[in-house]
Amino acid sequence: MLTAAGLAVLVSMALAILRGILGPGVYDRVLAMNMFGTKTVLLISIVALLYGRPDFLDLALAYALINFIGVLAVLQFVQNRDARRANKERRQRKGVSS
Amino acid sequence: MMTFFGFFTLTMVAVVAVATVVSSNLFVASMWFGIFSLLMASNFFILDAADVALTEAAVGAGVSTVLFMGALSLTADKESIRQGRRLLPIVVVAVVGLVLLIATLEQPRLGDPLAPVHQHVAPWYIEKTPEYINIPNIVTAILASFRGYDTMGEVLVIFTAGIGVLSVLSFKPKKRASISSEELGQAIRGLQHHAVLRVVGKLLIPVLLLFGLLVQFHGKYSPGGGFSAGALFAAAIMLYGILEGADRSAKAMPQKVMINLAALGCTIYTGVGVACMLLGHHFLDYNALWTDPQIAQYYGILMVEFGVGLTVTAVLIMIFNAIANRATY
Amino acid sequence: MNLLGLYNYWIYIFLLVVGLYAVFVKGNYVKRMIGLGIFQSAVFLLFISMDKVEGGTGPIFRGVPTEGQLFANPLPQVLILTAIVVGIAVTSLGLAIAIRIREEYGSVEEADTRRMDDQS
Amino acid sequence: MILGLISDAMLATGAAFVVIGAFGVIRMPDLYTRMHASSVTETLGMLLVMVGLLLTQGWSLATFKLFAIAVFLLFTAPVASYAMANAALISGVKPKLAHENDQETLP
Questions:
Q1: By C-alpha distance, which of C57, B313, B149, C35 is closest to A47?
Q2: Which residues form the MrpA C-terminal/MbhE domain (chain B) (predicted)?
Q3: Which residues 44-63 of A are in CB contact (within 8 Å) with C?
């Protein structure tokens, strides 16, 4: 059953990559990345137990913590980019009117 | 079954690598690169390299994404497509690939216990680690004791790279800022207005630091050690910087202190080596430190790993602060 | 079956080639750093593929070491463990240089910077 | 024995949820519905798989670690989804609404 669960996780990872490739917008790709991180944690836990080395679960713990940071960095970047673009447009509009 | 898992993840790695290179939006490309590193780390784990997977997890998915995002916000997030001469590069690349492909046909297949790599040196390390050093993690034993010279070199390289980033970014551009300071403050403010993110993120920071301590000091018994712990500590500070604004993380972890800490880490490493020499043994021969060689090795590895962790943490935080606090021009 | 055992090496070559292509063809300096990262990962994969021993496990003892227990080769792991952290440090140095280029030239495309160098 | 059966059942349902959610991410029409589908894999599927794994381990350090992983994922994944949805909405990604579709299909 562990193996079956592992296969299911692999299939969903592949589907997440497919969404990332198809994804029309930027946010679809962020979604794929976020989903992919969770799937990796699951895969690592399952593989650790399949190998019979539960002491390697540290890795999955590290992933669970680190993945969040990556998503936050991406979100901050998008937000700052949008803010910068809005600023630029405002400045240009001001420049035209004055 | 594990072989199948390996094949599947490797195929996904190849697909993701192509997607990374093809996408002309650099922001999307860095996200693909994050996925690429996650996949790579799971693959390392499937290939029995737990320590490497832990380091790749901490560095690739967290630190590298943060740094790429910081760099992209200072440069441009779109790549301009130019149809240049592509024939020559493609030919060169194809020839390189073909030569390597022919070379692999002679390689031993994956997992062959009779492969030449497994015949020399490595069995000695596996056999002698319990006798000489008596810690369960053979990787840490080799990293910090048997091949301590290598690791010292790597730590100095990391230190040098940190100094390099600082000196490259210490130049002030000639052009004046085209954005007012008020708008600038807005740009580096971070995610402060997201109350939910701040609360949950702040919950994670102490856990991450604690986990980093576990990886640092428990690295002799389980996967871990100074390199991965340093990356985890740095990731915790980066999380703080992202949530509260990079100016605050630079205030909490000032660059001057960080550069001293990085130097201190290198000094601890080399200092242990010199102390061994002063006590009449070879450089980095920890047996000099105590009468019982196993205890001496234990404490030697502890101190050296501490130095490594200090340098890696300080250098990564330094790089993050330097890039994230850079004003956009 | 023997050929299937070489799959890891083929993927490593593929990654190497993709990374090299990105470094050669792409004019954007940040994109080149990404290509360099892929190239680097290819080398990591080569080393880690070598360490696998069939029937072995990760090189960490659990309890008392017993006779006949097989472990993966720890030596390539040590080399790559340090190389990963060195890799990120060097990548960030490259990114810092790209940032400086952008500040001086206003662009991170090789074609633009070349043109400006020729003009001056 | 009973525990093994329960754990198998949980792993099976969890795996089913993970795959169904992933298919939803492919099949759904717009970003917000896709997010809705992916949250199934990230909370319910993840939780079932984790509890299934946990039950195979008995009382040990591994149990605690699995529990901790489940808790952290349960904290972070929905928060990340929230932040993503919020950012998408602010930057102007519009949800696809049913009546718009009707208007499109009507001549």
A1: C57
A2: 116-175
A3: 51-53, 55-56
The answer to whether chain D touches chain A by having 3 or more C-beta pairs less than 8 angstroms apart is yes
pLDDT digits (tens, 9 = 90+) for C59-114: 888 766 666 678 888 889 999 998 999 999 999 999 999 998 888 888 888 888 88
Q: How far apart are CA B265 and CA B243, in angstroms?
A: 28
The answer to whether residue B187 neighbours chain A at the CB level (below 8 Å) is yes
Which of C99, C39, C90, B23 lies closest to A33, judged by CA? B23
Share of residues in chain B with pLDDT > 90 (%):
38
With 0-12 / 13-18 / 19 or more C-beta atoms within 10 angstroms meaning exposed / middle / buried, residue D72 is buried
User: Are the Cβ atoms of C45 and B43 closer than 8 angstroms?
Assistant: yes
Task: Decide yes or no: CATH 1.10.10.410 for domain C7-51+71-119.
Answer: no
The full set of domain ranges for chain C reads: 7-51+71-119
Name the residue in chain D with its Cα closest to that of A16.
Answer: D22
- The Cα-based distances of B48 to A65, C74, D29 in angstroms read 22, 10, 40
What band does D95 get if pLDDT is binned at 50, 70 and 90? confident
Q: Where are the domains of chain B?
A: 126-328
pTM to 2 decimal places: 0.91
Is chain B touching chain C, with at least 3 CB–CB pairs below 8 Å? Answer: yes
For A21, C36, C72, C108, the CA distances from A74, given in Å and listed in that order, are 18, 21, 36, 21
pLDDT in the model for residue C1: 44
From C54's Cα to the closest Cα of chain B, the distance in A is 5
List the structure tokens of D103: 């208007």
Give the per-residue SS3 of C77-119: HHHHHHHHHHHHHHHHHHHHHHHHHHHHHCCCEHHHHHHHHHH
pLDDT at A98: 46
Is residue C57 less than 8 Å (CB to CB) from chain A? yes
Question: What are the tokens at C12?
Answer: 């490593």
Cα nearest neighbour of B34 on chain C: C34
What confidence tier does A97 reach under pLDDT thresholds 50, 70, 90?
Answer: low
ipTM for the predicted complex? 0.92
CB B236 within 8 A of CB B209: yes
